[in-house]
Write a structure and sequence with these properties.
4 helices; globular; DUF4352 domain-containing protein
Length: 203
């Protein structure tokens, strides 16, 4: 009887110890997560201890080379609208002169202003080609070598296909409108009829 009771006691102790161990394992696996401060408690999602927050996988990073990234550069290269006064001699034969007096930038165009003057006793005989020919008689040459012809000129709009005389002491204000705004960082040239070319113009 004593042996039987002893065996039963030993079995009972083993069962109790086994149940206790199982309970400890269950509590370990199902314990609540810690909500107290720790080494990463204040770190935002995606942050690492070695650097700033990184975008989650699949999230776009801020653009660094889009249109806005070079806004400062683009602004410096895109001339502002408005007039630029200058005095660049285009033609001088001793009695008659033609001078570039200004450039005016508008939306998508640059207007070239010129002044004709004469000291000749007989005046200066000038000729305007017919409109189609006139719009192919002058051009801008851009920094990349492109030639841009005018969409309108004084001759094409005021005196197409006519000859006239600029009287002594008189001044004629002429102009041409070109459908381009050259970069503010790049010089260009104007070739005006057969009077000559002005190099190094800049907006």
């Amino acid at each position: 009887m004593l042996r039987k009771h002893l065996v039963g006691l030993i079995v009972g102790v083993v069962v109790i110890v086994g149940l206790g161990a199982a309970a400890v394992v269950w509590l370990t696996l199902n314990k609540p997560e810690s909500t107290g401060p720790g080494s990463d408690a204040a770190a935002p999602a995606g942050a690492t201890a070695a650097g700033p927050t990184q975008p989650a996988s699949g999230s776009p990073a801020p653009a660094t080379d889009g249109p806005d990234a070079d806004a400062g550069t683009a602004a410096s290269a895109s001339p502002e609208a408005g007039p630029r006064r200058m005095s660049r001699l285009l033609y001088d034969d001793g009695q008659n002169t033609a001078t570039v007096t200004g450039l005016e930038v508008t939306a998508g165009t640059v207007r070239v202003q010129l002044r004709y003057a004469t000291r000749s006793p007989g005046g200066w005989v000038l000729s305007c080609p017919a409109r189609a020919a006139d719009l192919q008689s002058s051009h801008l040459t851009l920094g990349d070598g492109r030639e841009v012809f005018p969409v309108d000129t004084y001759c094409a709009s005021q005196r197409p296909g006519t000859d006239f005389t600029l009287r002594p002491g008189a001044v004629l204000e002429s102009w041409g409108v070109f459908p381009v705004v050259p970069s503010g960082d790049s010089p260009f040239s104007l070739t005006w009829y057969d009077l000559g070319t002005v190099e190094g113009l800049k907006l």
